[in-house]
Design goal:
The chain is an alpha/beta fold. The protein is built from 19 helices and 16 strands. Strands 3, 4, 5, 6, 8, 15 and 16 form a 7-stranded mixed beta sheet that branches. Strands 9-12-13-7-14 form a 5-stranded parallel beta sheet, with helices on both faces. The chain has a two-stranded antiparallel ribbon with strand order 1-2.
Length: about 575
């Protein structure tokens, strides 16, 4: 019961926001229609149950007029049932897609808000494979929640409707044992209740491990798919290193874990299915065995027997709701756990940005420089990496940041960009200023070349003529005719061409602060020098800070800041040693 309450609390927390959202009227309306139709279907089941008694009694009594009348009634009931079933499915699917659309939009917004997706990666595998959670898991959550919720409501109404019928039939067809009648009020109801409790308890005992197995299966499937994508995205490097056999072995190993867990699911499902099928088959004959002696004793007609058998089946099915959907319930609980983990991971990433033990990002009301105040950048494990006290990056300055590999230069850039949370102190950035970070390997979205260069702005933000002009300036005039071409540009272009396009992106965006993290390292020195001269000429108002190891870069920067080791971490120049302890 504790697990059930916890699961239902999580389901409510995940599901309720949609029905309080801007789409609540459509969502609540569709849900109300689905529930109303489900109740109407239960009503038709009750009417068909009563019809079955009259119809078979008419056959037994050879009453032709009653037979014809009941055939007309059946056609009306059957038509109503078909129409209700069709529209229930249609409205259910409509509600599913609206609900899924809202949840996907919300999850995407939370995931991509203020670099949460990056900080979630820094936390490890608390929410592995977010792509699966926002595609497959949301879809399954919506489907299973509606199935379970509407099915449970239907079972309750069906039980209340048929238990009255079954109670009355218990009186009309009293229990007979060894030729003697026994007056046990509602004995058919008690029999259905005992049988259902027995079935539910055994189903839970046999099927409980399926919840964890389903959770693990989804995780392993997603991990296998993720590694397939990794191989596809890095196919050139794998081919150059002749890593085909190694990758095949690694992928086969991951798929082997998928297969192994699937075998465990198969074994457990086999046992569960054997019981549930036996349980369902026995449920067909039990009411007939209980009521048949009354038929042989001449107390009831065959129509009453069949009505009692069907009513018993409906009551038993309603009471055994969880037996029938246990396999789906196990999958549903696994999906709920995965979405809960995703939400918790997003919340943790948000806390990393602004909670205690995080670097504070502030907007300077006045001034035009970036100020690092008592800054101590740490690794995720808490180890100190880079410290700075009173270090400033002044407006329109050209600064070269150097230091040994592993000194934390790139991590310092991430902290200034506001995406690296681990540490203490504050970074003040001028209000309304724009920062752009150019890494060694730029990112280009799949699409037109025009859109890839304009990213993160829309392609329409820059005219094709302007982009073509910038392409000529950076030394790639041959790409000007391909601006409308669609492609995966991180694969199509060489790393040197990608770095040139990174510079083109900076020229178009013209940020106030431009940080280049070895953004020209794949170019030869003359090409690198030409691009730096281009930046100096075209972006005279932009502050440029570069990370680089080439001595030739010093000629293009006014200042040189070299990270120096101080004990177990590195410091920026001008920082007092005693400030380390204070940090």
């Amino acid at each position: 019961m504790k697990n059930i309450r916890a699961t239902l609390a999580i389901v409510w927390r995940i599901a309720a926001p949609y029905f309080r959202s801007e789409d609540k009227w459509a969502g609540c309306g569709l849900l109300g229609a689905v529930i109303a139709i489900e109740l109407a279907l239960v009503g038709t089941d009750v009417l068909i149950n009563q019809w079955r008694n009259r119809f078979y009694t008419a056959l037994q009594e050879v009453n032709y007029d009653a037979f014809v009348r009941e055939m007309i009634v059946f056609i009306v009931l059957a038509t109503a049932t078909v129409a209700l079933s069709v529209y229930q499915l249609y409205l259910n699917q409509w509600l599913q897609i609206r609900w899924r659309n809202w949840m996907t939009t919300k999850y995407l917004g939370d995931w991509l808000h203020d670099a949460n997706h990056y900080r979630m990666q820094l936390q490890g595998d608390a929410a592995d494979n977010p792509d699966q959670r926002m595609s497959d898991d949301i879809k399954l959550f919506v489907e299973r929640t509606l199935d379970v919720g509407v099915g449970l409501l239907s079972s309750v109404v069906e039980f209340l409707s048929f238990v009255l019928i079954l109670w009355g039939l218990s009186e009309a067809a009293p229990l007979h044992l060894f030729g003697s009648p026994y007056d046990i009020p509602g004995y058919l109801v008690w029999a259905a209740l005992i049988y259902s409790i027995f079935g539910t308890a055994l189903t839970q005992w046999i099927g409980a491990p399926l919840v964890n197995l389903d959770f693990e299966q989804q995780r392993r499937e997603a991990d296998f798919r993720f590694n397939l994508v990794r191989v596809r995205e890095n196919s050139e490097q794998i081919a150059l290193l002749d890593g085909d056999r190694t990758e095949r072995a690694r992928l086969q190993d991951r798929f082997g874990s998928v297969v192994a867990n699937w075998y465990a699911i198969m074994s457990r499902t086999k046992r569960l299915t054997a019981f549930t099928q036996s349980y369902s088959q026995a449920a067909v004959i039990i009411p007939i065995v209980l009521v048949a002696p009354a038929l042989f004793a001449g107390k009831i007609l065959i129509g009453t027997l069949l009505q009692a058998a069907e009513a018993f089946g409906n009551v038993q099915k309603a009471l055994s709701f969880f037996v029938g959907i246990y396999r789906s319930m196990a999958e549903w609980r696994a999906v709920v756990a995965r979405l809960d983990g995703f939400e918790m991971s997003v919340a943790s990433a948000e806390h990393l940005r602004s909670g205690d033990g995080s670097i504070r990002m502030t907007a300077a009301g006045k001034g035009d420089e970036i100020d690092l105040t008592r800054l101590l950048v740490r690794l995720p494990n808490g180890a100190p990496l880079v410290a700075a006290e009173g270090f400033r990056i002044r407006n329109r300055e050209r600064m070269l940041l150097t230091g040994p590999s592993g000194a934390g230069k790139s991590t310092l850039f991430r902290a200034i960009a506001g995406i690296w949370p681990f540490g203490s102190g504050a970074i003040s950035v001028p209000a309304k200023s724009t920062l752009m970070m150019l890494p060694q390997k730029p990112y280009f979205p799949i699409g037109s070349l025009h859109a890839a260069i304009a990213y993160p702005s829309e392609a329409s933000s820059f005219a094709a003529e302007r982009v073509s002009e910038v392409l000529r300036q950076i030394g790639l005039p041959q790409l000007a005719s391909r601006l409308d071409e669609q492609g995966h540009w991180n694969r199509i272009l060489s790393l040197g061409e990608q770095q040139r396009l990174g510079i083109a992106r900076a020229l178009l965006q013209a940020p106030n602060f431009l940080f280049l993290d070895e953004a020209t390292a794949s170019l030869d020195e003359p090409s690198e020098a030409a691009l730096y001269r281009l930046l100096e000429a075209k972006l005279p108002q932009t502050t440029i800070v570069s990370i680089g190891h080439r001595a030739t870069l010093r000629a293009f920067h006014q200042q040189n800041a070299e990270l120096a080791r101080d004990g177990d971490h590195f410091v920026l120049p001008g920082r007092r040693n005693e400030a380390v302890a204070g940090s």
